[in-house]
Protein backbone atom coordinates (compact mmCIF):
# COMPACT_ATOMS: atom_id res chain seq x y z
CA UNK A 1 0.00 0.00 0.00
CA UNK A 2 1.78 3.10 -1.29
CA UNK A 3 0.51 6.49 -2.41
CA UNK A 4 1.34 6.19 -6.11
CA UNK A 5 3.17 3.27 -7.79
CA UNK A 6 3.91 5.52 -10.77
CA UNK A 7 6.46 7.41 -8.63
CA UNK A 8 8.78 4.38 -8.58
CA UNK A 9 11.27 5.58 -11.27
CA UNK A 10 12.23 8.60 -9.14
CA UNK A 11 12.53 6.36 -6.09
CA UNK A 12 14.83 3.94 -7.90
CA UNK A 13 17.23 6.79 -8.69
CA UNK A 14 17.35 7.78 -4.99
CA UNK A 15 17.82 4.17 -3.95
CA UNK A 16 20.73 3.68 -6.36
CA UNK A 17 22.46 6.83 -5.06
CA UNK A 18 22.12 5.66 -1.46
CA UNK A 19 23.47 2.20 -2.32
CA UNK A 20 26.53 3.74 -3.97
CA UNK A 21 27.34 5.59 -0.75
CA UNK A 22 26.74 2.80 1.76
CA UNK A 23 29.75 0.47 1.23
CA UNK A 24 29.71 -1.10 4.71
CA UNK A 25 26.10 -2.19 4.36
CA UNK A 26 26.87 -3.42 0.82
CA UNK A 27 29.69 -5.55 2.23
CA UNK A 28 27.35 -7.07 4.80
CA UNK A 29 24.65 -7.57 2.17
CA UNK A 30 26.98 -9.58 -0.08
CA UNK A 31 27.77 -11.97 2.78
CA UNK A 32 24.12 -12.24 3.83
CA UNK A 33 23.03 -12.92 0.25
CA UNK A 34 25.65 -15.65 -0.17
CA UNK A 35 24.73 -17.46 3.06
CA UNK A 36 20.96 -16.71 2.99
CA UNK A 37 21.21 -16.23 6.76
CA UNK A 38 17.61 -14.97 6.98
CA UNK A 39 16.05 -17.70 4.85
CA UNK A 40 12.81 -18.81 6.45
CA UNK A 41 12.66 -15.71 8.67
CA UNK A 42 10.20 -12.84 8.50
CA UNK A 43 11.43 -9.32 9.24
CA UNK A 44 8.99 -6.60 10.31
CA UNK A 45 10.26 -3.03 10.08
CA UNK A 46 9.05 0.37 11.29
CA UNK A 47 11.49 3.07 10.18
CA UNK A 48 11.57 6.44 8.45
CA UNK A 49 11.00 5.17 4.92
CA UNK A 50 13.47 6.98 2.70
CA UNK A 51 16.28 5.80 0.43
CA UNK A 52 18.76 4.55 3.05
CA UNK A 53 16.00 2.61 4.80
CA UNK A 54 15.02 1.03 1.50
CA UNK A 55 18.61 -0.17 1.08
CA UNK A 56 18.45 -1.86 4.50
CA UNK A 57 15.12 -3.50 3.61
CA UNK A 58 16.69 -4.99 0.49
CA UNK A 59 19.59 -6.37 2.54
CA UNK A 60 17.16 -8.60 4.44
CA UNK A 61 15.21 -9.45 1.28
CA UNK A 62 18.35 -10.57 -0.58
CA UNK A 63 19.37 -12.60 2.49
CA UNK A 64 16.26 -14.75 2.11
CA UNK A 65 13.81 -13.05 4.46
CA UNK A 66 10.23 -12.07 3.82
CA UNK A 67 10.08 -8.38 4.68
CA UNK A 68 7.27 -5.96 5.60
CA UNK A 69 7.79 -2.28 6.41
CA UNK A 70 5.85 0.78 7.50
CA UNK A 71 6.91 4.33 8.25
CA UNK A 72 7.66 5.48 11.79
CA UNK A 73 6.51 9.07 11.29
CA UNK A 74 3.60 10.59 9.30
CA UNK A 75 5.79 13.07 7.41
CA UNK A 76 9.03 11.16 6.80
CA UNK A 77 8.00 8.60 4.19
CA UNK A 78 9.20 9.50 0.69
CA UNK A 79 6.44 8.25 -1.59
CA UNK A 80 8.67 7.66 -4.59
CA UNK A 81 11.05 5.51 -2.53
CA UNK A 82 8.13 3.58 -1.04
CA UNK A 83 6.84 2.92 -4.55
CA UNK A 84 10.25 1.73 -5.77
CA UNK A 85 10.71 -0.54 -2.75
CA UNK A 86 7.30 -2.12 -3.24
CA UNK A 87 8.50 -3.36 -6.65
CA UNK A 88 11.31 -5.41 -5.08
CA UNK A 89 9.12 -7.85 -3.20
CA UNK A 90 9.11 -6.01 0.13
CA UNK A 91 5.58 -5.57 1.57
CA UNK A 92 5.30 -1.78 1.92
CA UNK A 93 2.58 -0.08 3.98
CA UNK A 94 3.62 3.57 4.03
CA UNK A 95 2.82 6.95 2.54
CA UNK A 96 3.49 10.54 3.54
CA UNK A 97 0.69 12.12 5.55
CA UNK A 98 -0.81 9.04 7.22
CA UNK A 99 -3.34 9.69 9.98
CA UNK A 100 -2.91 8.20 13.45
CA UNK A 101 -5.54 5.58 12.62
CA UNK A 102 -3.81 4.68 9.34
CA UNK A 103 -0.46 4.47 11.10
CA UNK A 104 -1.80 2.02 13.68
CA UNK A 105 -3.42 -0.01 10.92
CA UNK A 106 -0.09 -0.15 9.08
CA UNK A 107 1.65 -1.39 12.22
CA UNK A 108 -0.95 -4.17 12.40
CA UNK A 109 -0.37 -4.98 8.72
CA UNK A 110 3.36 -5.41 9.34
CA UNK A 111 2.67 -7.59 12.39
CA UNK A 112 0.20 -9.52 10.23
CA UNK A 113 3.25 -11.01 8.52
CA UNK A 114 3.96 -12.71 11.87
CA UNK A 115 7.57 -11.48 11.90
CA UNK A 116 10.14 -13.20 14.08
CA UNK A 117 12.63 -10.29 13.84
CA UNK A 118 11.64 -6.64 14.37
CA UNK A 119 13.63 -3.59 13.19
CA UNK A 120 12.27 -0.54 14.99
CA UNK A 121 12.69 3.24 15.27
CA UNK A 122 10.81 4.62 18.25
CA UNK A 123 9.71 1.22 19.67
CA UNK A 124 6.20 1.47 18.24
CA UNK A 125 6.35 -1.88 16.45
CA UNK A 126 7.92 -3.57 19.47
CA UNK A 127 5.30 -2.14 21.81
CA UNK A 128 2.46 -3.08 19.45
CA UNK A 129 3.80 -6.64 19.30
CA UNK A 130 4.07 -6.86 23.09
CA UNK A 131 0.49 -5.67 23.42
CA UNK A 132 -0.73 -8.62 21.35
CA UNK A 133 0.12 -10.98 24.20
CA UNK A 134 2.31 -13.96 24.92
CA UNK A 135 0.92 -16.24 22.19
CA UNK A 136 2.02 -13.70 19.59
CA UNK A 137 5.35 -12.70 21.09
CA UNK A 138 6.62 -16.19 21.87
CA UNK A 139 7.34 -16.60 18.15
CA UNK A 140 9.46 -13.42 18.05
CA UNK A 141 13.20 -14.05 18.34
CA UNK A 142 13.93 -10.40 19.15
CA UNK A 143 14.05 -6.79 18.00
CA UNK A 144 16.60 -4.09 17.20
CA UNK A 145 15.87 -0.51 18.33
CA UNK A 146 17.37 2.51 16.60
CA UNK A 147 16.57 5.61 18.68
CA UNK A 148 17.05 7.16 22.11
CA UNK A 149 13.30 7.68 22.42
CA UNK A 150 12.65 4.03 21.63
CA UNK A 151 15.27 2.79 24.06
CA UNK A 152 13.81 5.00 26.80
CA UNK A 153 10.34 3.53 26.26
CA UNK A 154 11.65 -0.03 26.15
CA UNK A 155 13.71 0.48 29.30
CA UNK A 156 10.49 1.49 31.06
CA UNK A 157 8.78 -1.66 29.75
CA UNK A 158 11.68 -3.81 30.91
CA UNK A 159 11.55 -2.23 34.37
CA UNK A 160 7.86 -3.09 34.61
CA UNK A 161 8.53 -6.67 33.43
CA UNK A 162 6.47 -6.16 30.26
CA UNK A 163 9.16 -6.79 27.66
CA UNK A 164 8.50 -10.27 26.27
CA UNK A 165 11.56 -10.80 24.04
CA UNK A 166 15.16 -9.52 23.80
CA UNK A 167 15.79 -6.15 22.18
CA UNK A 168 19.23 -5.06 21.01
CA UNK A 169 19.77 -1.36 21.66
CA UNK A 170 21.42 -0.40 18.39
CA UNK A 171 21.06 3.21 19.51
CA UNK A 172 23.68 2.62 22.21
CA UNK A 173 26.33 1.32 19.81
CA UNK A 174 29.30 3.67 19.59
CA UNK A 175 29.12 3.62 15.81
CA UNK A 176 25.51 4.81 16.09
CA UNK A 177 25.20 7.54 18.69
CA UNK A 178 28.66 9.07 18.26
CA UNK A 179 28.05 9.54 14.54
CA UNK A 180 24.35 9.24 13.63
CA UNK A 181 23.08 11.36 16.51
CA UNK A 182 25.87 13.93 16.41
CA UNK A 183 27.10 14.27 12.83
CA UNK A 184 24.00 12.91 11.11
CA UNK A 185 21.38 14.95 12.95
CA UNK A 186 23.68 17.96 13.23
CA UNK A 187 23.97 18.22 9.47
CA UNK A 188 20.49 17.05 8.46
CA UNK A 189 18.69 19.28 10.99
CA UNK A 190 20.29 22.40 9.59
CA UNK A 191 19.67 21.15 6.07
CA UNK A 192 15.97 20.73 6.87
CA UNK A 193 15.75 24.20 8.42
CA UNK A 194 17.48 25.82 5.46
CA UNK A 195 15.38 23.95 2.89
CA UNK A 196 12.17 24.82 4.74
CA UNK A 197 12.92 28.51 5.24
CA UNK A 198 15.62 29.53 2.73
CA UNK A 199 16.89 31.92 5.43
CA UNK A 200 20.41 32.75 6.61
CA UNK A 201 21.69 31.07 9.78
CA UNK A 202 24.75 33.28 10.21
CA UNK A 203 24.10 36.03 12.75
CA UNK A 204 20.96 34.41 14.12
CA UNK A 205 20.54 33.42 17.77
CA UNK A 206 19.72 29.72 17.77
CA UNK A 207 18.37 28.08 20.93
CA UNK A 208 19.08 24.35 21.17
CA UNK A 209 16.98 22.58 23.79
CA UNK A 210 18.94 19.61 25.10
CA UNK A 211 22.68 18.94 24.92
CA UNK A 212 22.63 15.18 24.41
CA UNK A 213 24.36 13.77 21.35
CA UNK A 214 21.73 15.20 19.02
CA UNK A 215 21.79 18.62 20.68
CA UNK A 216 25.59 18.65 20.60
CA UNK A 217 25.55 18.00 16.89
CA UNK A 218 23.00 20.72 16.15
CA UNK A 219 24.80 23.25 18.35
CA UNK A 220 28.22 22.56 16.83
CA UNK A 221 26.94 22.77 13.26
CA UNK A 222 24.97 25.94 13.97
CA UNK A 223 28.09 27.50 15.48
CA UNK A 224 30.00 26.55 12.35
CA UNK A 225 27.37 28.32 10.24
CA UNK A 226 27.97 31.55 12.13
CA UNK A 227 25.04 31.41 14.54
CA UNK A 228 25.09 32.56 18.15
CA UNK A 229 24.08 29.40 20.04
CA UNK A 230 22.21 29.21 23.35
CA UNK A 231 21.69 25.85 25.07
CA UNK A 232 18.91 25.01 27.52
CA UNK A 233 19.30 21.93 29.73
CA UNK A 234 18.00 20.18 32.85
CA UNK A 235 21.20 18.19 33.40
CA UNK A 236 23.90 20.26 35.18
CA UNK A 237 26.77 18.20 33.73
CA UNK A 238 25.56 18.63 30.15
CA UNK A 239 24.89 22.31 30.79
CA UNK A 240 28.43 22.73 32.11
CA UNK A 241 29.82 20.91 29.07
CA UNK A 242 27.84 23.21 26.76
CA UNK A 243 29.21 26.25 28.57
CA UNK A 244 32.78 24.98 28.22
CA UNK A 245 32.18 24.35 24.51
CA UNK A 246 31.60 28.08 24.20
CA UNK A 247 27.80 28.16 24.16
CA UNK A 248 25.63 30.37 26.35
CA UNK A 249 23.45 28.46 28.82
CA UNK A 250 20.16 29.63 30.34
CA UNK A 251 16.62 28.43 31.14
CA UNK A 252 14.12 28.31 28.29
CA UNK A 253 12.12 31.13 29.91
CA UNK A 254 15.13 33.43 29.39
CA UNK A 255 16.16 32.02 26.03
CA UNK A 256 12.62 32.54 24.71
CA UNK A 257 13.10 36.30 24.86
CA UNK A 258 16.28 36.39 22.76
CA UNK A 259 16.15 33.44 20.37
CA UNK A 260 15.48 33.75 16.64
CA UNK A 261 15.32 30.03 15.96
CA UNK A 262 14.46 27.25 18.43
CA UNK A 263 15.43 23.60 17.91
CA UNK A 264 14.21 21.00 20.40
CA UNK A 265 16.36 17.87 20.80
CA UNK A 266 15.36 16.33 24.12
CA UNK A 267 13.04 13.41 23.37
CA UNK A 268 10.75 14.75 26.09
CA UNK A 269 7.43 16.58 26.07
CA UNK A 270 6.32 20.23 26.45
CA UNK A 271 9.82 21.67 26.16
CA UNK A 272 8.43 24.82 24.53
CA UNK A 273 4.97 25.81 25.79
CA UNK A 274 2.61 28.78 25.55
CA UNK A 275 4.48 30.39 28.45
CA UNK A 276 7.64 30.48 26.33
CA UNK A 277 5.84 31.36 23.11
CA UNK A 278 4.28 34.41 24.70
CA UNK A 279 7.79 35.77 25.33
CA UNK A 280 9.21 35.21 21.86
CA UNK A 281 10.18 37.78 19.26
CA UNK A 282 8.10 38.51 16.20
CA UNK A 283 8.97 35.97 13.45
CA UNK A 284 10.69 33.48 15.78
CA UNK A 285 11.02 30.04 14.18
CA UNK A 286 10.23 26.79 16.04
CA UNK A 287 11.26 23.29 15.02
CA UNK A 288 12.01 19.85 16.43
CA UNK A 289 14.50 17.05 15.80
CA UNK A 290 13.30 14.77 18.61
CA UNK A 291 11.35 11.67 17.60
CA UNK A 292 7.79 12.81 18.40
CA UNK A 293 5.88 16.04 17.79
CA UNK A 294 5.43 16.80 21.48
CA UNK A 295 8.52 18.85 22.30
CA UNK A 296 7.14 22.04 20.79
CA UNK A 297 3.60 22.13 22.15
CA UNK A 298 1.61 22.50 18.94
CA UNK A 299 -1.62 22.39 20.99
CA UNK A 300 -0.48 25.47 22.91
CA UNK A 301 0.46 27.23 19.70
CA UNK A 302 -2.94 26.48 18.19
CA UNK A 303 -4.63 27.72 21.35
CA UNK A 304 -2.87 31.10 21.59
CA UNK A 305 -2.93 31.87 17.86
CA UNK A 306 -5.72 33.96 16.35
CA UNK A 307 -4.84 33.01 12.80
CA UNK A 308 -2.66 30.51 10.97
CA UNK A 309 -1.59 30.11 7.36
CA UNK A 310 0.87 28.11 5.29
CA UNK A 311 3.60 30.41 3.97
CA UNK A 312 5.93 27.75 2.54
CA UNK A 313 5.52 23.97 2.06
CA UNK A 314 7.05 23.18 5.48
CA UNK A 315 6.36 26.50 7.24
CA UNK A 316 3.16 27.46 9.06
CA UNK A 317 2.72 31.00 10.35
CA UNK A 318 0.82 31.49 13.62
CA UNK A 319 -0.28 35.05 14.38
CA UNK A 320 -0.82 35.88 18.06
CA UNK A 321 -3.19 38.45 19.58
CA UNK A 322 -0.24 40.81 20.01
CA UNK A 323 0.32 40.77 16.26
CA UNK A 324 3.58 38.83 16.60
CA UNK A 325 4.14 35.90 14.24
CA UNK A 326 5.67 32.56 15.13
CA UNK A 327 6.69 30.08 12.45
CA UNK A 328 6.45 26.31 13.00
CA UNK A 329 8.42 24.00 10.72
CA UNK A 330 7.09 20.60 9.58
CA UNK A 331 4.18 20.63 12.04
CA UNK A 332 6.63 20.19 14.93
CA UNK A 333 7.77 16.82 13.59
CA UNK A 334 11.30 15.76 12.61
CA UNK A 335 12.45 18.69 10.51
CA UNK A 336 15.53 16.85 9.23
CA UNK A 337 13.37 14.15 7.61
CA UNK A 338 10.12 16.00 6.94
CA UNK A 339 11.84 18.96 5.24
CA UNK A 340 14.99 17.21 4.01
CA UNK A 341 16.35 13.71 3.31
CA UNK A 342 17.49 12.77 6.80
CA UNK A 343 21.02 11.75 7.72
CA UNK A 344 23.74 11.50 5.07
CA UNK A 345 24.16 8.05 3.51
CA UNK A 346 27.66 7.57 4.98
CA UNK A 347 26.28 8.00 8.50
CA UNK A 348 23.31 5.69 7.97
CA UNK A 349 25.75 3.19 6.48
CA UNK A 350 27.05 2.66 10.02
CA UNK A 351 23.70 2.81 11.80
CA UNK A 352 22.06 0.34 9.44
CA UNK A 353 25.13 -1.89 9.49
CA UNK A 354 24.49 -2.05 13.24
CA UNK A 355 20.85 -2.98 12.61
CA UNK A 356 21.78 -5.68 10.10
CA UNK A 357 24.53 -7.29 12.20
CA UNK A 358 22.39 -7.11 15.33
CA UNK A 359 19.53 -8.86 13.52
CA UNK A 360 21.97 -11.57 12.42
CA UNK A 361 23.13 -11.89 16.03
CA UNK A 362 19.51 -12.40 17.12
CA UNK A 363 19.02 -15.13 14.51
CA UNK A 364 22.13 -16.96 15.72
CA UNK A 365 21.91 -16.28 19.47
CA UNK A 366 18.30 -15.30 20.16
CA UNK A 367 17.30 -18.49 21.97
CA UNK A 368 20.06 -17.89 24.51
CA UNK A 369 19.13 -14.27 25.25
CA UNK A 370 16.93 -12.92 28.05
CA UNK A 371 13.88 -10.75 27.45
CA UNK A 372 15.59 -7.45 28.15
CA UNK A 373 17.54 -4.63 26.49
CA UNK A 374 20.94 -5.78 25.26
CA UNK A 375 23.88 -3.75 23.99
CA UNK A 376 25.33 -4.39 20.55
CA UNK A 377 28.27 -6.79 21.06
CA UNK A 378 31.50 -4.77 21.11
CA UNK A 379 33.10 -6.96 18.46
CA UNK A 380 30.37 -5.96 15.98
CA UNK A 381 30.66 -2.28 16.89
CA UNK A 382 34.42 -2.26 16.33
CA UNK A 383 34.08 -4.19 13.07
CA UNK A 384 31.67 -1.58 11.69
CA UNK A 385 34.15 1.17 12.56
CA UNK A 386 37.01 -0.71 10.84
CA UNK A 387 34.99 -1.23 7.69
CA UNK A 388 33.90 2.40 7.64
CA UNK A 389 37.54 3.52 7.96
CA UNK A 390 38.45 1.22 5.07
CA UNK A 391 35.67 2.78 3.02
CA UNK A 392 37.27 6.17 3.67
CA UNK A 393 40.59 4.71 2.53
CA UNK A 394 42.16 4.96 5.99
CA UNK A 395 44.22 2.50 8.01
CA UNK A 396 45.16 2.52 11.70
CA UNK A 397 47.86 0.94 13.90
CA UNK A 398 47.56 -2.30 15.86
CA UNK A 399 49.03 -3.03 19.27
CA UNK A 400 52.16 -5.17 19.27
CA UNK A 401 52.21 -8.26 21.50
CA UNK A 402 54.40 -6.36 23.97
CA UNK A 403 51.91 -3.46 24.01
CA UNK A 404 48.99 -5.81 24.52
CA UNK A 405 50.79 -7.46 27.45
CA UNK A 406 51.63 -4.05 28.95
CA UNK A 407 48.06 -2.81 28.56
CA UNK A 408 46.68 -5.73 30.58
CA UNK A 409 49.41 -5.79 33.23
CA UNK A 410 49.47 -4.05 36.58
CA UNK A 411 53.27 -3.94 36.50
CA UNK A 412 55.20 -1.08 34.90
Describe the structure.
There is one protein chain. This protein is α/β, with parallel strands linked by helices. It has 18 helices and 15 strands. 46% of the residues lie in helices and 17% in strands. Helix 11 links the parallel strand 8 and strand 9. The mean pLDDT is 96.
Helix and strand arrangement:
Elements: H1 8-20, H2 23-35, E1 42-47, H3 51-62, E2 66-71, H4 79-86, E3 91-93, H5 100-111, E4 117-120, H6 124-131, H7 134-137, E5 142-145, H8 148-159, E6 167-169, H9 174-197, E7 205-209, H10 213-224, E8 228-232, H11 236-244, E9 248-249, H12 252-258, E10 261-264, H13 274-277, E11 284-288, H14 298-304, E12 305-312, E13 315-320, E14 325-329, H15 335-338, H16 345-365, E15 373-375, H17 378-391, H18 401-407
Parallel strand pairs: 1-2, 1-4, 2-3, 4-5, 5-6, 6-15, 7-8, 7-10, 8-9, 10-11, 11-14
Antiparallel strand pairs: 12-13, 13-14
Helix pairs in contact: 1-3, 1-4, 2-3, 2-16, 3-16, 5-6, 9-10, 9-16, 16-17
Amino acid sequence: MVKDPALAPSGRIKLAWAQENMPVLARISRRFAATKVFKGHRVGMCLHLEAKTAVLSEVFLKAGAEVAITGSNPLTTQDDVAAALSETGVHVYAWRGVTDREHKANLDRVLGLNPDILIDDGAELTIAANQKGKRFTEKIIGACEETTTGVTRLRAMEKEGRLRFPVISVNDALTKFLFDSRYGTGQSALEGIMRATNLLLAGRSIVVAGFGWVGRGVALRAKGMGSRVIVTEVDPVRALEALMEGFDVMPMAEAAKVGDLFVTATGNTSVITATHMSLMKDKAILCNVGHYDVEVSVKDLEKIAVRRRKVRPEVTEYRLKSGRRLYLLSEGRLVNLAAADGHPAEVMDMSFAGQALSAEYLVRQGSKLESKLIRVPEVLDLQIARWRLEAFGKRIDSLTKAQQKYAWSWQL
